[in-house]
Write a structure and sequence with these properties.
The complex is a heterotetramer, with two copies of chain A and two copies of chain B. By secondary structure, chain A is an alpha/beta fold. Chain A contains 15 helices and nine strands. The N and C termini of chain A lie far apart (48 Å). Chain B has two domains: 1-43, no CATH class; 45-268, Alpha-Beta Complex (2-enoyl-CoA Hydratase, Chain A, domain 1), CATH 3.90.226. Chain B starts with 7 loop residues before the first strand and ends with a helix. Classes of the chains: A alpha/beta, B alpha/beta. At the A-B interface, helix 8, helix 9, helix 10, helix 11 and helix 15 of A face strand 5, helix 4, helix 5, helix 6 and helix 7 of B. Strand 9 (320-322) of chain C pairs antiparallel with strand 5 of chain D, so a sheet runs across the interface. Bound molecules: zinc ion (ZN) (2 copies). One zinc ion (ZN) binds at residues 17, 19-20, 22, 36, 38-39, 41 of chain B.
């Protein structure tokens, strides 16, 4: 079982390397060698596409976990800076601090004003620490709440990008009320009189994710995951074996398709060939179009309708059998 | 029944306190509401004991008793665990919901029982909490929820996580209707339950020394290397951190709830 | 210039002592000595009353400051526990901590449910530290805001007791946003849809006081003070002489009468002979009756009327001359 | 006019930076919006300079210019101080209010001028801020308030304190009306102004290194014995503490305000 996306994608990374080399050779070689070089490139390309096809056509739950965590996958700010204009990042919870694991602010989306919020991962070591691996602290959720309230005050739709392994589990977060912060953020989302769209772009990690995901429309990228517990944590509890993540991922059925089948999300957004990380432009367009369509659908709903639609949708979640009372 | 942490029965007349390990007269112990007379340790209660010591005698009537969990994910061993918990506890899931009166005031209530799979919240617990809050909202009566949970029920996967959203949405309904909602944290109130409906109650009381926290093992590991207070993740720590209103001894809980309930419904009558 | 209430009341404290002794002697003395003893007591009593009359009939601003700070004056919880029943003290700001300089909770006032909030001083050294000298930190104001919101949600009138030298000026309070907390508490008070009554029972110290005093009715005990700056602070700025507190107190005109004359409070509540600290029972009754009357007056106002009454009252505060624009 | 902290004029062509003490070409300095090209020090601006660099050319029109302070307490030396401030600054009090447009968007605005008695807030400043916010509420247009103040104006006693309540009440009016309110903290934004209308703006921007704090001398004394960050009570510290949204360089202020204003009014049009 591969433990990381890099490990799992090794065959692809190898062929990418070979392809790169072949292309360099092609640039330098003489005209007579050109045909052979191009044939080689075509061969590698086809091989690469075949491997992608094999690897990505039927990703298992664990592979989805790995892909959802891929370091080259577009993160929240990548979508925000591409899909939005006039973005002014706003900071602070007006209580304690400014959390860099959650970003947000005012922006225009296709000429219309919105509030945008997202969990932000870091791409290099320093940035990852700066973002606390997208594990938000209480002040992150309280910043989100403040922005949600601002959205409500000025009748701005909300777009949120969900991408977190979990909320920050540290001692400091505990003492400043990480539980309360998550709960209050969920509560606020249900009280909103404006449309909200959440897009799960990578990891939808338990309470940390739901804190900004209780939206009128919840969209989920094809290879992103959404889970009540990280598979490693589940494996540790069930089999005392964190390494059994793959087994746990299968048991948890944390894929977008599974969430859709159970009515827990509204839509699965297809990823480009080989995953979102292979084609930022396409996936960004997909996400942009889906947000646009969702906002358009919600546009006709009154504030009361929006609250009711949100309530009814989440109210229906759960599977119970109801027998006549036995007592 | 005292759940997992039940005071050990020595013989019919005696029990051993789980706090100080001293031997206590069972009758005195029970008359003291299962609180040790020697060290004050609050032993866990079954839902039925809680209902009995809290509400007007015989006033509790159960609702939603027919709700049962569905093993929708066919999760390893879930069905067996459910069945054994049902057999052991005599209830169908970790929360019992219903109606009762408190000094004559009608309330909607839910009581978690930790002895049922660690009080974990799956679809059934989430549904019962939601209905409890909805009944409060509809009738504009107070909701009183006794929490006791290790968190979400992993075995129901994402469905369990969504109970966080669903139950919290029901709190919004209470707020909209102006129905007061009081949560009582008992030992333990953790993770997915703490991070949803439990923490957004209008008033939060807690029993002394109850475990109250978001993160489990991971934070515990960190706590070992960091300097943290002795009562970290206890009710008293939560009080100091501003997260709960009051730590209330079990013998004072009923009267405290009664005062609160009468004041909070008073303004809207 | 006396620097403390104890110093200033020295003549009275001395005669109180003499009176005490005389009474003890009277208890023990023989029947024949009884008449003389009682005459002595009567003499001392009259003298005491004369001194009180002289000292308290025309308290200057500085003496009011001293009396307002008297250690034996009833504090917020003294009023709360006497005037209210079913008091359940509620704690915590749900953010960071529980501030003991501000207390509050649910209670019944003459059979009617209310929310009560107060700044609480300590009477001995430990208690004073525990209460931080009634200098509230951000979490204190945020607790108050939470209680105000609860009052609004359940349509409960609010009674607040104001008694603080100032908000906590420490580094920690600064970093957790003491300014924001005060401002947000004032703002919340103006947004309330329920009646609010504030009683200034001792020191109404600048921003720290106004944070819980922006009420529909503001009552002020006769010898309490209300000031934009502590007189010592004012003296330090004006004359680089904190000891010139008396001079500054006079300049600031921080008395209840002055506040009433300028329309900055609604009512001055008379204190018992010799000040509130000499007769808790009477002053408590006075305060209770005044709260009852105020709530009764406000009872007939709709939520919108309450907001408007509050706005109009504070809106009118200030003295400006308005000439035709010169530019 | 640059207020108290004005860059020292050496001769007509040069000025000395108050931050790094270097000599700068006056023309370049002014073209750089009075920000030192060497060290980035943001020099204080007069209200007029602020209006000029912020709003559409010629769009600012003053309101409330006739308001004047009344020495109602006959406070020692107040009258003299007022008169000399008026003579020195050419304005009647520490705040200038009016209307303007920003990239064509009409706004209600108030600009504090620190050179008038340290930007202190008495009845006149309070009244002008209140009217500015009321105009925004009535017309449902954005309010933009530039803060610069040492705090309340002691010389007007309790009347000054009540300006904290009055101005904050006006913020409630803006919220009720759905009019956006943006505060810009410039050097310094302190005490009674910070603890009232300034801190409850919908969006708070600040110029780099502006002093932003509640307590003056007292806290400074404490800060000497305690370990506090170098930038304590600076805009950057306020940002880290979660109290403001953004530190914005002067040259980016106009465009930032413009983006904000267009988004915040957009939803209600
Ligand atoms: Zn014991
Ligand atoms: Zn410089």
């Amino acid at each position: 079982m591969a433990k990381s996306w890099k490990e799992w994608e090794k065959p692809l990374l190898e062929i990418d390397e070979a392809l790169e080399k072949a292309r360099e050779i092609a640039k330098k070689c003489s005209p007579t060698e050109q045909v052979a070089a191009e044939e080689r490139i075509a061969y590698f390309e086809q091989r690469r596409d075949n491997i992608i096809r094999v690897m990505y056509s039927r990703l298992g739950p664990w592979e989805k976990v790995l892909v959802a965590r891929a370091e080259t996958r577009p993160y929240a700010l990548d979508y925000i800076t591409t899909l939005f204009t006039d973005f002014v990042e706003l900071g602070g919870d007006r209580r304690f601090g400014d959390d860099h694991a959650i970003v947000g602010g005012t922006a225009m989306f296709q000429g219309k004003p919105v509030i945008v919020v997202g969990q932000q991962k870091g791409r290099n070591i320093q940035d990852r620490q700066y973002r606390n691996f997208a594990m938000a602290k209480p002040e992150g959720y309280r910043k989100a709440i403040r922005l949600f309230e601002m959205a409500d005050r000025f009748r701005l739709p909300i777009v949120s990008f969900v991408d977190t392994p979990a909320a920050d589990p540290g001692v400091e977060s505990e003492s400043r009320g990480i539980s309360e912060a998550i709960a209050a953020s969920i509560l606020k989302m249900f009280e909103l009189n404006v449309p909200s769209v959440a897009v799960i772009i990578g990891e939808g990690g338990s309470g940390g994710a739901i804190g900004i995901a209780a939206a009128n429309k919840v969209l989920m990228l094809e290879h992103s995951v959404y889970s009540v517990i990280p598979p490693e944590g589940c494996a540790a509890i069930l089999w005392r074996q964190p390494a059994e993540g793959a087994k746990a991922a299968a048991a948890l059925q944390l894929t977008a398709q599974s969430a859709l089948d159970r009515g827990l999300i509204d839509e699965v957004l297809p990823e480009p060939f080989g995953g979102a990380h292979r084609d930022w432009e396409t996936v960004t367009k997909t996400v942009g179009n889906a947000i646009e369509a969702s906002l358009h659908t919600l546009d006709s709903l009154s504030p009361a309708d929006l609250r009711e639609q949100r309530y009814a949708k989440f109210r229906a979640m759960g599977r119970v059998a109801e027998a006549a009372p036995s007592a | 029944m005292l759940g997992k942490k039940k005071a050990t029965g020595l013989d019919g007349s005696f029990v051993q306190c789980l706090g100080c390990k001293k031997t206590l007269f069972r009758r005195e112990f029970e008359e003291n509401l299962f609180v040790c007379q020697m060290c004050g340790h609050h032993h866990r209660l079954s839902w039925r004991q809680r209902a009995e010591i809290t509400f007007d005698e015989g006033s509790f009537s159960e609702a939603d008793a027919g709700l049962r969990s569905v093993d929708t994910l066919e999760f390893p061993e879930y069905r067996e665990k459910l069945e054994s918990a049902i057999a052991k506890t005599g209830i169908n899931d970790s929360v019992v919901s219903g109606r009762a009166t408190l000094d004559g005031v009608p309330v909607s209530t839910a009581i978690a029982d930790f002895s049922f799979m660690g009080g974990s919240m799956g679809s059934v617990a989430g549904e019962k909490i939601t209905r409890t809050l909805e009944r409060a909202a509809t009738d504009r009566i107070p909701a009183i929820v006794f929490c006791a949970s290790g968190g979400a029920r992993m075995q129901e996967g994402l469905l369990s996580l969504m109970q966080m959203a669903k139950t919290t949405a029901a709190v919004a309904k209470c707020r909209e209707a102006g129905a007061p909602y009081i949560a009582v944290f008992t030992d333990p109130t953790m993770a997915g339950v703490l991070a949803s409906y439990a923490s957004v109650a209008d008033v939060i009381l807690a029993e002394p020394k109850s475990l109250v926290g978001f993160a489990g093992a991971r934070v515990a590991a960190q706590a070992q290397v960091m300097k943290v207070p002795d009562d970290f993740q206890k009710a008293e720590f939560a009080l100091r951190s501003g997260m709960i209103d009051k730590v209330v001894e079990r013998r004072a809980m009923r009267s405290t709830l009664s005062s609160l309930v009468r004041v909070l419904i008073g303004g809207s009558r």
